[in-house]
TrEMBL record:
Coiled-coil annotated residue ranges, if any: none
Keyword Isomerase set for record: yes
Keyword Metal-binding tagged: no
Gene3D superfamilies recorded: 2.70.98.10
The name this protein goes by in its record: Aldose 1-epimerase
Organism: Salmonella enterica subsp. enterica serovar Bovismorbificans
Keywords: Isomerase
EC assignment: 5.1.3.15
InterPro entries in UniProt: Gal_mutarotase_sf_dom, GH-type_carb-bd
Domain of life: Bacteria
GO molecular function, one term: carbohydrate binding
GO biological process: carbohydrate metabolic process
Length: 76
């Protein structure tokens, strides 16, 4: 759960069909080089991804591979 005090809300991220969750932020140096983010955008940015980082996904015709996440935003 992410607590956003500035906008008085919580952001709940629920992961489905996953082994791992990766959270990242570009930091100051990378933020400056990203065309779709302001130079100081790293101060208000977080990315939370549902991933298979520690093992390969095994997909077959009978059992396809899938990843999903549900994001819920609620005012506090």
């Amino acid at each position: 759960m992410i607590h956003d005090a500035t906008l008085n809300r919580t952001i709940d991220v629920v992961h489905h069909h996953h082994l791992n969750v990766v959270g990242w932020n570009p930091g100051p140096a990378l933020s400056v080089s990203m065309g779709d983010m302001p130079d100081d955008g790293y101060k208000t940015f977080v990315c939370v991804e549902t991933v298979y980082a520690t093992a390969p996904q095994q997909a077959t015709e009978e059992k396809p591979s899938r990843l999903a996440q549900t994001i819920c935003v609620a005012k506090r």
